[in-house]
């Protein structure tokens, strides 16, 4: 299958492209820079130059492909309104292009803000409309399942971990090094779901082949790792003391990531595992930390 992938050289996207190619798919990746284009070509993927603001370019990429996997996002925490608007415009363009074709459209989503309990695949996103998180694109995309698009939501754990990850765990480890203490919010009982990047990539390939229109699949290997366990592992690896951070001091200590590290983001993947025959085999988050995937002291 010829697959057009946005975010093809990002953390998750790079692993997804590798997995797709290994499975025999033809891949065209969206690339903003010469370096990104060269990285894709080195893997044997084709290159489509452009970015999320180039709607005509996105349309052309989707028109030329048999499937679209949308993993790109600006992730501009200083301009969330702009990030959400760009995301909605991109998804709208891609879905409009695929409408009536029965071609797959797989959309990167997440689990934050859905529920205080354990999120399951049968719980719909509460976010609708352009002003909501991610521009409400999960509901927007899944609405096209009734309009001739095999739309599937890929809900990723808040940490997709592994060597080379520059996401949330990398930021938290950086705060620990900068502050000289590996902290956790309050009693450290809040939990984060996690998945290794190799397992996440394999799930995407399986979803491309098997997931029905309108489905939600969970890239979740560990239902919930406590933030205290995460802080303790970071402390061990970097030789730092581990300490609770008073809730009032959390924003000042952790900065912009405080709201995430204080959150409770847990989910199950039982339905996904049964649906796709997907069974995570990669290392756990703590195993990755212990092995030095985020550096050593």
TrEMBL record:
<protein>
    <submittedName>
        <fullName>SDR family oxidoreductase</fullName>
    </submittedName>
</protein>
<dbReference type="Pfam" id="PF01370">
    <property type="entry name" value="Epimerase"/>
</dbReference>
<feature type="domain" description="NAD-dependent epimerase/dehydratase">
    <location>
        <begin position="3"/>
        <end position="213"/>
    </location>
</feature>
<dbReference type="InterPro" id="IPR001509">
    <property type="entry name" value="Epimerase_deHydtase"/>
</dbReference>
<dbReference type="InterPro" id="IPR036291">
    <property type="entry name" value="NAD(P)-bd_dom_sf"/>
</dbReference>
<dbReference type="InterPro" id="IPR051783">
    <property type="entry name" value="NAD(P)-dependent_oxidoreduct"/>
</dbReference>
């Amino acid at each position: 299958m010829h697959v057009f992938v946005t975010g093809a050289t990002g953390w998750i996207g790079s692993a997804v492209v590798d997995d797709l190619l290994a499975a025999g798919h033809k891949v065209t990746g969206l690339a903003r820079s010469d370096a990104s284009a060269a990285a894709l070509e080195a893997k044997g993927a084709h290159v489509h130059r452009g970015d999320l603001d180039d709607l005509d370019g996105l349309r052309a990429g989707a028109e030329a492909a048999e499937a679209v996997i949308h993993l790109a996002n600006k992730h501009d925490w200083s301009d969330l309104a702009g990030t959400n608007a760009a995301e909605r415009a991109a998804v709208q363009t891609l879905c409009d292009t695929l409408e009536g074709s029965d071609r797959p459209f797989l959309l990167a989503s997440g689990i934050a803000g859905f529920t205080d309990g354990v999120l399951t695949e049968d719980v719909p996103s509460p976010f609708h409309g352009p002003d909501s998180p991610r521009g409400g694109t999960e509901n927007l995309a899944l609405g096209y399942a009734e309009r001739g698009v095999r739309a599937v939501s890929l809900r990723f754990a808040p940490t997709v971990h592994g060597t080379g990850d520059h996401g949330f765990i990398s930021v938290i480890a950086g705060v620990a090094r900068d502050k000289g203490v590996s902290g956790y919010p309050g009693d450290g009982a809040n939990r984060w779901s996690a998945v290794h990047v190799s397992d996440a990539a394999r799930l995407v390939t399986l979803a491309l082949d098997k997931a029905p229109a309108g489905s939600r699949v969970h890239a979740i290997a560990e239902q919930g790792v406590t933030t205290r366990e995460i802080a303790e592992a970071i402390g061990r690896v970097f030789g730092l003391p581990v300490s609770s951070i008073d809730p009032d001091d959390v924003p000042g200590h952790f900065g912009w990531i405080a709201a995430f590290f204080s959150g409770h983001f847990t989910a199950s993947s039982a339905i996904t595992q049964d649906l796709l025959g997907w069974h995570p085999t990669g290392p756990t988050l703590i195993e990755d930390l212990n092995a030095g995937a985020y550096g050593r002291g």
